[in-house]
Design goal:
321 residues, alpha+beta, 8-stranded antiparallel sheet
Length: 321
């Protein structure tokens, strides 16, 4: 006669700091096979490739060279995805944006000075994904002034890498959050309840955060948010958002306050959220509805000046009452 012993599920939580922000990992398993040390080692590995704040990183090696470099696996994966999304968004997502990001005060060197039109025009000559070329694992630049910034995609990729790490250890029920970018798989144990994710909700002053506006339920996929309230600074009483339009050279200036994107993986969601912010509500909603790989939730200021929301048809299916 055999006896049946139910699986004893335990809930494990790992938190820490990385990539200039915080992270939180919750997973369900029989033992604590994934440790904070393993997570931090993986995040340090990612920083060595993708971080502008590590002088020795591969991205800085590319930015500091006049011609190009051989990429490591992490940088290669991110560049490939970035170029695909650049093409799909007609250039609104562009990793060569760094000269403009720096000029507007969101790079490593901080400044509150607003660049004038002539400076923007000059810098735009260095900004275009047409100025970089990927052949195999070698990324070249056509002008020495070209520099890349992966801030709009690297954290999503990092979340996916952490998800892969957990799954290598047969952990299939988890929530990973890094800097507000989230990936989910499985359910809460032992209840089997779906994971619940809250969406940040700005107040009438769009640069202030309020309690979560919407709750969605997931058992797989990723959710990322881009918002004008997330990173900004003031100059002469003007609030300047970090979301820069690579085509105009100027910060985002439309009715959208935030865009939350759902996709199968976090690199996809993260790559699209900034581009959708730049499109404005009508074009962004139309863009999302035409694609099967993403869904989106928009917070915007309507014609009367009040804050409103709108969701794509696929995103509505994720919302809970």
């Amino acid at each position: 006669m055999t006896s049946f012993r139910p699986v004893e599920w335990n809930r494990y939580t790992i938190t820490g700091k990385a990539q200039g922000t915080t992270y939180s990992i919750v997973y369900y398993g029989k033992d604590s096979i994934i440790t904070k040390k393993k997570i931090d080692e993986k995040l340090m590995e990612l920083d060595s490739s993708l971080s502008l704040y590590k002088s020795y990183s591969r991205i800085n090696q590319f930015n500091n060279t006049a011609k190009g470099i051989v990429l490591d696996d992490h940088l290669l994966s991110v560049i490939k995805k970035a170029l695909l999304v650049n093409k799909d968004t007609d250039g609104l997502f562009d990793i060569t944006i760094y000269p403009l990001v720096e000029a507007w005060g969101f790079g490593k060197k901080k400044t509150n000075n607003i660049p004038d039109d002539s400076e923007i025009l000059s810098l735009r000559n260095c900004v275009s994904s047409k100025l970089i070329e990927l052949k195999g694992n070698y990324l070249s630049k056509k002008k020495p002034c070209v520099k890349i910034d992966l801030d709009g995609i690297a954290q999503g990729y990092s979340v996916d890498v952490l998800a892969d790490l957990l799954e290598q250890y047969n952990i299939n029920d988890y929530v990973i959050e890094l800097g507000g970018e989230i990936r989910v798989k499985g359910t809460k144990k032992p209840s089997g309840e779906k994971m619940k994710i809250g969406i940040e909700s700005p107040s009438e002053d769009e640069f202030d955060l309020q309690p979560f506006n919407e709750i969605i339920s997931l058992n797989k996929g990723a959710v990322t948010t881009s918002g004008s309230y997330r990173k900004f600074h003031e100059s002469n009483g003007r609030k300047i958002t970090h979301i820069i339009n690579p085509k105009t050279g100027f910060p985002q200036d439309n009715e959208l306050i935030s865009v939350t994107v759902y996709a199968d993986d976090a690199i996809t969601a993260d790559a699209y959220d900034n581009a959708l912010m730049l499109m404005g509500l009508e074009k962004a909603l139309d863009f999302v509805e035409k694609r099967k790989n993403i869904a989106a939730y928009f917070i915007y200021r309507n014609n009367s000046g009040t804050v409103s929301t709108k969701a794509s048809s696929a995103f509505l299916k994720l919302k809970t009452d």
